[in-house]
Every structure is written in structure tokens, then in C-alpha cells.
Specification:
The chain is an alpha+beta fold and 279 residues long. Helices cover 36% and strands 33% of the residues. The chain has a 9-stranded antiparallel sheet with strand order 1-2-3-6-7-8-9-4-5, with no helix packed on it. Strand 1 (29-36) and strand 2 (39-46) form a beta hairpin. The protein is elongated. The protein starts with a helix and ends with a helix.
């Protein structure tokens, strides 16, 4: 009994040491996920509050590099190439740094998004895009720093930075027209070789071999260089009793797999050819 009491006491002491006090963060983390046109935009940032302080020109000095929030630098991710105030910006994740001024803000998209705050050493080669926008004075105060989107159009939106009585707005243009036309043309063109390949594999797995054959033949016709397509073609033909066709397809798959340096498919095809008595 004494040993049990000592063991329980040790566990409780251990748990007490590992426990941590949880309190609200003064600048809470926020994530904004927004679809603009057909482009996904995500922002992660921490939101400081005024708390009676003078913000711009004091807490955030004019014309000095700012992390654009608190804690870790603000990050933005685009799923497509976009334009920021007319400047090209490739899809990916960036840190947003700003230089707030009395009349204008400089908005900088920095390719190294892993900094805590501003970079210890600034690297101009990592500036992916930047823009200068007007600083607008609001007739009221916004207590907590906010990044939001407004003025949505089919091919763009405005990203707003708002805090205290100041707002800066950045226009973002997205490739909605191009993506929509590409989608329309793809659908109107009918199923792709990969669509037929996926259908063929499914029908083979549920033992509907004639349907599988129909789809795999269309897949192979659309992409004759895919050794894995020919591999499935050979297996499906074997299931339908067409051994000669299966051997021919397996030899094609073997040849392509050897050219591609895919040892796994080389072995699979050789094993099948041996099983089918091919010469």
C-alpha cells in the first residue's frame, strides 16, 4: 500500500511540473481564408490592440519596416499567380512587411516567410513584389489591427490593412478569366486519358472487364507513353481471355518502363510475361 501511495504521489508531482498556465494572448492569432474569383488566398497574422496607445508615428514608427502585426511576421499564400497593384507575384507563401508613412504605405511581399518579426538581415533579392499605396484617415478608431478583403470583383479584390484611424488598401488581381476558360475547354473536350485510366482500373477491380477494356483502350490511345497504362491494359486483356493481346501490351509496358528506368514495372511485366508463357 505504501508503494502505491508513493507511486501516485510521484505521478501527481510530475503532472504538476509539466502543467502550464494558460492565459489569453495579448495579440491573438488569426487566420483569414478567402476565395477571390477562383483563387484561394490565406492570411495568418497576430492582431495587436491600441490599448490607449498612439499607434502610427509612435508604437509603429513612420517609414520604418514593420512586421504588419505582432509576434511572427504576417504570412499570405496565393494558390495562383496574381498581380498586386499591377506587379506580378507568383503563387506561393510570402511574408508581408510594410513601411507605414503619414501619406503612403509601402507594401512588401518577401519570399522568406520564416522570420519572427522582421528579418535580422534584409535581402533585396527576396523581395518578390512591392507596391506603394495611399494611407487613408478614418473618421473613427479601429481598436484591433485587422486585415480584411473588400470590393470583390470577378477578377480581383482589395486587401485592407486597418488599425487606429488609418487604412491602407492594396488591389489584387487574380486570373479568374483564364482559369474559367481553361476549365470550360477541359470539360467540353471530354474525359482525359487519366479519367479513362481511373475508370478502367475501377471496372477491373469490380470484375467488369469489358467496360474496363473499353476505357483502358481510350486511355492508351490518348497517352501511348504511359507504361502504367499499358500494364493495366495487359492485365485487363488477360482477364478477358485475350492472351496474345495481353502479351503484346505487357511487352510495350516493359519496353517503356525500361526506358523510364522503373525497375518495379520492369519486374511486374517480366513476371506476367513468364506467367503467360511469352517468348
Amino acid at each position: 500500500m505504501k508503494k502505491i501511495i508513493l507511486f501516485v504521489s510521484a505521478v501527481l508531482i510530475s503532472l504538476g511540473i509539466e502543467a502550464q498556465v494558460e492565459t489569453p494572448q495579448p495579440s491573438p492569432f488569426s487566420k483569414v481564408d478567402q476565395v477571390v474569383g477562383l483563387t484561394d488566398v490565406s492570411i495568418e497574422y497576430s492582431r495587436p490592440s491600441m490599448k490607449g496607445r498612439t499607434i502610427f508615428g509612435n508604437l509603429v514608427p513612420y517609414d520604418k519596416l514593420w512586421r504588419t502585426g505582432a509576434n511572427k511576421n504576417t504570412q499570405i499564400t496565393f494558390s495562383d499567380d496574381v498581380k498586386v497593384e499591377g506587379n506580378e507575384l507568383k503563387k506561393g507563401t510570402y511574408a508581408i512587411f510594410t513601411k507605414p508613412g503619414k501619406e503612403n504605405w509601402e507594401i512588401i511581399f518577401y519570399s522568406d516567410a520564416s522570420n519572427w518579426g522582421t528579418p535580422q538581415k534584409w535581402d533585396d533579392s527576396k523581395v518578390a513584389a512591392k507596391a506603394t499605396v495611399k494611407a487613408n484617415t478614418l473618421p473613427f478608431n479601429v481598436e484591433t489591427f485587422t486585415i480584411m478583403f473588400s470590393d470583390f470583383k470577378m477578377d480581383g479584390a482589395t486587401m485592407n490593412f486597418v488599425w487606429a484611424n488609418t487604412e491602407a488598401a492594396v488591389k489584387i488581381k487574380v486570373p479568374t478569366k483564364e482559369k474559367a476558360m481553361e476549365s470550360i475547354e477541359k470539360v467540353m473536350a471530354g474525359p482525359s486519358p487519366n479519367d479513362h485510366y481511373q475508370a478502367a482500373v475501377f471496372y477491373k477491380d469490380v470484375e467488369q472487364y469489358e467496360k474496363a477494356k473499353k476505357h483502358i483502350e481510350k486511355a492508351v490511345a490518348g497517352r501511348a507513353d504511359a507504361f502504367w497504362y499499358h500494364r493495366q491494359h495487359s492485365l485487363i486483356l488477360a482477364k478477358t481471355g485475350d492472351k496474345a493481346g495481353a502479351v503484346k501490351a505487357a511487352k510495350t509496358s516493359l519496353e517503356l518502363a525500361e526506358k523510364a528506368g522503373n525497375a518495379d514495372y520492369v519486374k511486374l511485366n517480366k513476371d506476367s510475361l513468364a506467367e503467360w508463357g511469352a517468348k
